[in-house]
Amino acid sequence: MIPFNKPYLVGKEAHYMYQAVMAEHLSGNGPYTKKCQKFFEERYGFKKCLLTTSGTDALEMCAMLCDLKPGDEVIIPSYTFVSTALAFLREGAKVVFADSMKRNPNLDAEAIEALITPRTKVIIPVHYAGVACDMDRIMEIAHRHNLLVVEDAAQAIDSYYTSNITHNTLLEEHQTSHIKHNTSEGNRVPLGGIGHLAAFSFHETKNITAGGEGGLLVVNDERFIRRAEILWEKGTNRAEFFRGAVNKYGWVDMGSSFLPAEINAAFLWAQLENLDEIQAKRKALWNKYYELLNPLADKGYFQLPDIPEYASNNAHMFYLVCRNLEERTNLIKFLKEHEIQAVFHYLSLHSSEYYKNKHDGRELPECDRYMDTLVRLPLFYDLEIEDVERICEVIRLFYV
Ligand SMILES: *Cc1c(COP(=O)(O)O)cnc(C)c1O
Questions:
Q1: Which of 58, 64, 159, 218 could join 198 via S-S bond, C-beta 3.0 to 4.6 A?
Q2: Gap from CA of 178 to ligand 1 centroid (Å)
Q3: Residue 168 has pLDDT above 80, yes or no
């Protein structure tokens, strides 16, 4: 059986975990945590990074930092993982679901403005499959309406957006920081470095993992840094105390225990050291899928992943969009009979058991279409090119 996903070791994971034990520091915010955070701050120019125990936790921190009042509204794509909505619901927000685009499952920036009311506080774009949302448009709308932007970059490590805002005044007003990679077309900025806040995930199914579960909060807007550090460590000013900025350490705000153990940070560090190698391998597999399936897509059997001109590809996911639900069901079954595990993705949140009675009743036809027709193919570090060839041959057999 070719599984949909499989954990892998790529370098010194076990060694660094052993080192963490030998260094006699296993609780959070130790040397490996600091190394990982610095890696992200230096490689991507993120202003402040804090490791968390999951992507969900990082989103919860984002939601807490937005300081929502009951009845405040947040705009979220319906076609996303449950945590995107859950984090904000827990803070008492009203979740307003947006539809996806026709070309890909990302939220349709053109549909956002119609959803804004005087109670709207935050827009949460999700970079589905690691492919950027139209961030110039989203940041421009947010700026005009004085809204915060939280990027759900759970799937978007090492992926970029090409901005056409050359003078960058818009983003500077939001005090965001990011490394600008000048290209002929515009500024190449890393995903997670555009919104005021962002969340990454290092869950087992993502491009890199912190040993199963893990995440990262990114703070691009300086105004949120102090409070982020406090929320992270159970509402205490421990970080300031250890920097010598205050002489008493105590309880100053809300918070929780969002820090991962050093064992997890040590695992993550080994994967970060090999990030370029991991990404190269994933991209090679992704490109092979694309090359072999493109002729079938040309015949109209299905739609392949779409990478807009402003987005890069971090090879997080390879998916097909089938013509209808029945065909997708049969394709998944056919693949299973040939020892290949493929999975469908999100059940749109607006039609979920938990939320359908709370949703305002608007139809979101593109979300529903992806819910019924999108199928994800196996993609993980230890998958081989020959596996991809076999999977594509089985898909060809199904259609032709
Ligand atoms: C994986 C994922 C999350 C949650 O991350 P965890 O680390 O599993 O908590 C949130 N949003 C999206 C879009 C994801 O893909």
A1: 218
A2: 23
A3: no
Residue 100 and residue 170 in contact, taking contact as beta carbons nearer than 8 Å:
no
Q: What is the pLDDT of residue 183?
A: 45
Distance from the alpha carbon of residue 201 to the mean position of ligand 1, in angstroms: 6
Query: What is the bridge-based pairing of β-strands 120-123 and 73-77?
Result: parallel
Is residue 152 within 6 Å of ligand 1 at its C-beta? Answer: yes
CA distance 256 to 274: 31
Residue with tokens 């500077």: 172
- Of residues 345 and 69, more confidently modeled: 69
Q: Evaluate if residue 170 carries a pLDDT over 50.
A: no
Task: Please count the other Cβ atoms lying within 10 Å of the Cβ belonging to residue 179.
Answer: 14
Q: What is the rounded CA–CA span in Å between residue 271 and residue 281?
A: 13
Q: Which two tokens stand for residue 278?
A: 């991991």
Distance 158 CA to ligand 1 centre (A): 16
pLDDT of residue 165: 76
- 219 - beta bridge partners? 48, 197
C-alpha to C-alpha distances, 156 to 55, 130, 316, nearest whole angstrom: 12, 4, 7
For residue 200, the Cα-to-chain-centroid distance in whole angstroms is: 5
Looking at residue 205, its pLDDT comes to: 97
Helices marked H in 121-168:
135-145
Q: Is 134 in the pocket of ligand 1 (CB under 6 A)?
A: no
Calculate mean pLDDT across residues 220-246.
95
Query: For residue 11, which amino acid is it?
Result: G
d(CA 249, CA 251) in angstroms, rounded, equals: 7
Residue 377 pairs in a beta bridge with 318
Mutate to test the pocket of ligand 1, among 62, 131, 155 (most ligand atoms within 8 A of CB): 155
**pLDDT tens string 238-262:** 999 989 989 888 999 999 999 999 9
* Residue-wise burial string across 329-364, b where 16 or more C-beta atoms lie within 10 A, e elsewhere: eebbebbeebebebebbbbbbbbeeebeeebeeeeb
Is the per-residue pLDDT at 275 higher than 50? yes
Please work out whether the CB of residue 154 comes within 6 Å of at least one atom of ligand 1. yes
Global pTM reads 0.95
Q: How far is the CA of 133 from the centre of ligand 1 (A)?
A: 16
- Joined together, the tokens standing for residue 340 give 């290949």
What is the rounded CA–CA span in Å between residue 379 and residue 318? Answer: 7
> What pLDDT, on the 0 to 100 scale, is given for residue 351?
94
Reply yes or no on whether the pLDDT at 33 is more than 50: yes
